[in-house]
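Hey, I'm writing a tutorial for new members on how sequence and structure tokens pair up, and I'd like a real worked example in the thread rather than a made-up one. If someone can provide the structure for the chain below, I'll link this post from the tutorial.
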Amino acid sequence: MAKTVPPGSARETFYDQVYAFVRLVPNGRVVTYGQVAVLLGAPTASRAVGYALHNLPGGSDVPWWRVINAQGRISLKGRGTSADLQLAMLKDEGVSFDDTDRTLLSDFRWWPDGADANLS
């Protein structure tokens, strides 16, 4: 497991901030890459959010599968088994998808208390 750095410390990285935020996302809810970036104060860093999640160490407790794209779809390149796993994990948590593997963000997107739902 990766070292834990106290929030707000001088050594806390953007990746640490992403991991801390994604750990807050409740079971059965999703957030988007762009939403995470905006709420962390880096509105142009949605790709960096994806890179952070891609680089999670094995055995991490970060629920990476709860982060999807702004269209309500899974964004894994090439799809394949990782995308199938993410879809299955979300469905197991009660997130529903249509025939095109799209979920309604209006139904399943999570916003932390005090966050403005108009941000992304």
